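ok here's the first one, seq then struct tokens
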Amino acid sequence: MAKQTFSSGQVLTATQVNDLQTNDFNWSVSTQTANYTLQAADKGTREVMNMASAGTVTVPNSTFNAGDIVWVHSIGSGVISVVAGAGVTLNSAFGTAPTLTQWEGGVVYFTSASAAIFFRSGGSGYGLATGGDASTDVTISGVNYRYLTFNSTGTLTVTKAGLFDVYLTAGGGGGGAGQDTTTRGGGGGGGGGNLTSTVYLDANTTITIGAGGAGATTNASGALGGATLVAGKAGIIGGGGGIGGQSETNGRERGITGGGGRASVGTTGGTSLYASTIYGYSGGDGSAASTGSGGGGGAGGAGGTVASTTGGAGGAGLQRNTFIGGASLLRAGGGGGGGTTGGAGTDGGANGGGTTTVGSAASANTGGGGGGGGNPNSGSNVNGGNGGSGIAYIRFRI
């Protein structure tokens, strides 16, 4: 119920006393279905927001006094932002415009007529942290987030214990090397995998960024990409190296988070292994009649099969903007296979080499596979390209 006012010497009735006692245990509730500005009569009550789309609760100036409180709960599917009205200072551990998703709530506590603090209620909420190479604020599906970008290994400094969303991309595998006229081009390196998870952190944590796998320089396979890790909490292993050399009969078997493409060694066919969005996809096949190799598998799709003299294209990567917002950004794709004409890398993966041409190296922080070495006309090696290093995003609500 609304706050009651009594005069000096007034004798309270049993009904008035019972009403006061009831309010201590069962606060009055008002339900709102549209944007709402708190009113003086709301002090000591609960405002329940029931909106299917994003909305706001505005904290007004010169309406409440120091010590007044109002509970705000959200029961609808729309994200509710608690915002300061003109002339009001609103503080919170979750930023100056904290948000409530469905079934969340908190209390607005006034320290003066023009200043208030919002305290979120419930279980473990999101924590706060600093560190990395960049800090970016975004709004995704109506929720305000800050994410920290780690391009290289470093320390996440936790300033408030709580939950953190993590998005990890491992290093891409290196491209295989081509050697002499019978080995043909080496396969493109597999793209590094992606992992999205939510973890609880209460202390400073090392974020390890996986290095890209080295491209092969002999009749061999490229190196696997390095793992990207949130120490002790989450991690994703790197992409498989591209296959090169006749002793390697099945490049797909090296694929863990995007397999290396297979060189042309006189065999064909086979089913994709590790086909999932966590572990990546298999590398593509070469064939006995071709002068090229399969493309490396990506985090989101299998590598392409060689097309006659053209190496297979790298497999597809995965979308990042659902986590970090902004424009479309696909990464962790496979490298193209080598051949007389190199196959195209995809979504951060590098292009394969052509005749006597080395495979291209994938760019840093893409998790892309390195390109396979081209198809030599002599007994010399044609090197594969290096895979791209990984990246980590650490996100929390504000």
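and now the second one, same deal
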Amino acid sequence: MAHKKAKLWFDEDLAQLLADKLEPHYPSFDSKDFVRAVGEGVADLELKARAEFIANNLREQLPDDYKEAVNILVKSLGSENPNETGMFTEFYWVMPYATFVEKYGLDDLETSLRAIAEITKRNTGEFAIRPFLEQYSDKTFEQMLRWSQDENFHLRRLASEGTRPRLPWAKKLDSVIENPSLTIPILENLKDDPVKFVQKSVANHLNDMLKDNYDDAMSVLKRWSQDASKDRKWLIKHALRKELKKKNPEALALLGTLEKRCAHPT
């Protein structure tokens, strides 16, 4: 797969893969029609449009009841992903499931959040979660805060990645841009996460925050520098990478102070 463009993975072969996974859990699934429709329909589409096309065809094939349909999707997911890998590795085929929940699940928050959790344990729910953060802000941010303390590192990463103000390929999260305090408690829970996959997301989240809420982000980074471990030092430096590249005096000073503290721990 590595030699292909990612969008080309979402084709007739992927449709057959999904059909093979779904049919044992839903014998009425018309695999032949599904594979044919996807094969004919995605040729001129880009990646996210292909995932949406496949999700739309899943909607036509699965039961009308959303909860029943999602339960079938979840049953077909198989074992969880034990590795620190993102959306374009061995679980890339789950992407249309996430799109399905994102597009069709807004009227059932509870079912959708459970599905996003299971999807995230294999792939990612970082795009699927965003409409729920907008429509059910309080309840969804509360769930993200709980996930930031979950034993599953994929869910901990989702708590940061899904709430990023400027997540690539997604709409800006205006609520977080207007009120960065919505996500700071989540980031606080993750600042010493032992998993690099999570650390990188937290750093990217703060890198986003620096663009719109510079003072808030710098305040967090300065506070975290007070007793920074080696991993947290890496996180802070990664969050500051663009400011350091611009030779921002405040960022350079913070990095210098941080390195002195790490060299001479109290």
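notes on #2: The mean pLDDT is 95. The chain has 16 helices and no strands.
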